[in-house]
Amino acid sequence: MNNFYVYQHLNQGGQCVFVGMGQHNGAWCFKGKKEAHVEFMKEAMPSNMRVIVITHAMEESKAKALCEASIVALKPKFNKEAKVEVEVKAEKPAEKVEADNPSKQKPKSAPKTSE
After folding, report:
1. Would you say 78 and 9 are in contact if contact means Cβ atoms under 8 Å apart?
2. How does DSSP classify residue 114?
3. In the chain, what are the domain boundaries?
4. CB–CB of 6/61 below 8 Å?
5. What angle do CA 61, 31, 82 make, to 5 degrees?
6. Using omega within 30 degrees of 0 as the cis cutoff, is the peptide bond preceding 107 cis?
7. Which of 9, 45, 62, 76 is the most buried (most CB within 10 A)?
8. What are phi and psi of 67, to 5 degrees?
């Protein structure tokens, strides 16, 4: 089902301190979060709790992949380091074609004309 979302918790300076994925009101719940993160949330709630929903209506696997990639990129204070497998494809550079260098091309013979 496409009912997962990815969110961020921001501190008062606007820095991302947590990236998570959830359903329903998971971004505002304490369940499953580290003690330091829960303390941060309690101090910030209700008026200074800044939650940004990055995306919604996602399949669980896609939400998890986005969440983990965001953790790797942002390194938020309250997340443990995520381990994301990144597929890197190395492509061989295209071989030079003679057309790239006109000085090395053989001259074309002039088209035959009927006189």
Report:
1. yes
2. -
3. 4-74
4. no
5. 45
6. no
7. 9
8. -60, -50
- Please tell me the distance from the alpha carbon of residue 37 to that of residue 51, in angstroms, as a whole number: 13
pLDDT category, 108, cuts 50, 70, 90?
A: low
| Cβ-contact 38, 30 below 8 angstroms | yes
Q: Find the mean pLDDT for residues 16-21.
A: 95
Residue owning tokens 């669980």:
60
CA distance 52 to 55: 9
pLDDT digits (tens, 9 = 90+) for 78-95: 998 665 554 444 455 555
Rounded Cα distance, 45 and 28, in Å: 9
Q: Give 21-55 pLDDT, tens digit per residue.
A: 999 999 999 998 999 999 999 998 877 889 999 99
The span from the CA of 62 to the CA of 7, in Å, is: 13
pLDDT of residue 97: 52
Copy the structure tokens of residue 28: 């505002």
Strands 4-10 and 16-22, by their bridges, are antiparallel
Quote the percentage of the chain above a pLDDT of 70. Answer: 70
